[in-house]
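Input sequence (158 aa), recorded before submission:
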Amino acid sequence: MNRRTVLPEGSLDATDRAILNALQDGFPLSPRPFDEAAEPLGLAGAELIARLARLREVGATTRFGPFFDAAAMGGAFCLCAMAVPEADFEAVVTKVNAHDEVAHNYARDHALNMWFVLATDTPEGIDRTAAEIERETGLEVLMFPKLEEFFIGFRVQA
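Predicted structure, token format:
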């Protein structure tokens, strides 16, 4: 995980912004979803795929893919935090992100400077994965399990 920075002026053109805005509202489930998503944007599916790859490369997006509700499928989510010495940050983030269960990872300017979400196929997987990360890094993983769910909707205008 690289530290997030502001994109340089001119990194996104009007089409990039239209893609980012449109795809926040969903993605088609069809035999040719990229073609279907590209059509209202005036693009071909292959061009949409290429632009999504470029948006990832320049840092405008960190991932493109589905969001699965692990809890609804019998699994679990947990927000976790770690206090990582600055000199070890990149090495620790590499170890943490090597786990398939790590859904998101964010650097923060705080004593707890690494925050990530674990998503596992069983509730027991949360404790197991956190313990593995602790063994691998030698650092404590603080866990903040969800007590109640709120849907606030989140959309960012590009």
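Checked by second reader. The longest strand covers residues 76-82.
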